[in-house]
Write a structure and sequence with these properties.
Elements lengths: L1 E8 L3 H10 L11 E12 L2 E10 L5 H4 L8 E9 L4 E8 L6 E12 L2 E12 L8 H37 L2
Antiparallel strand pairs: 1-7, 2-3, 3-4, 4-5, 5-6, 6-7
């Protein structure tokens, strides 16, 4: 499954980029589907910042998904490499459930557009049914349900984060 989103924010690229990278924990009040974000590690080398953040989601879970997904599926670790010279971040998400079955990775680009910034996210989500740990006759159905559930959460999550950045910057610049 391809993950893609594009959103425009009416703020300078460097401000949007550093807010998205450095103020993520402060954005939680603006993210209705996120309960908490914990910074697990941060280190910088040669103008590149490596961040590991643990996310704890929430919100309503569809009835069918509830029979398959646990609370752990609503938590994930985000591994991100921020390249300030290119205004990009390469990311990989590792859910806390079905860890070996899920591959989710991509790149966000922060582009100057007019007086603002366009954030373009492009990634992929792949579920390997053979690694879900469920019986083979259910594996494809489980993989499809998990991929559908995650796919419907990941793209809106990126849009919510961008909206959170917008609200945060609007309040910060008042």
């Amino acid at each position: 499954m391809i993950i893609k989103s594009s959103v425009y924010l009416p703020f300078p690229r460097s401000l949007v980029y550093t807010t998205y990278r450095d103020q993520l924990v402060d954005l939680v009040p603006f993210l209705p589907d996120i309960r908490q974000i914990e910074v697990k590690s941060r280190h910088e080398a040669d103008g590149v910042i490596h961040l590991v953040n643990e996310w704890h989601g929430g919100g309503e879970i569809p009835v069918l998904a509830r029979t398959i997904l646990t609370q752990a599926m609503l938590s994930w670790t985000d591994y991100a490499t921020w390249n300030e010279a290119e205004f990009t971040t390469d990311w990989r998400i590792e859910p806390h459930a079905f860890t070996k079955a899920v591959h989710c990775a991509g790149k966000n680009s922060f582009l100057e557009e007019g007086n603002g910034t366009r954030i373009v996210c492009l990634g992929e989500l792949i579920i390997d049914p053979s690694k879900t740990g469920v019986p083979f006759f259910l594996a494809d159905k489980v993989a499809h349900t998990v991929e559908d559930f995650l796919g419907k959460r990941i793209e809106p999550n990126f849009l919510q984060i961008s909206e959170g950045v917008r609200h945060y910057l609007e309040q910060s610049t008042i």
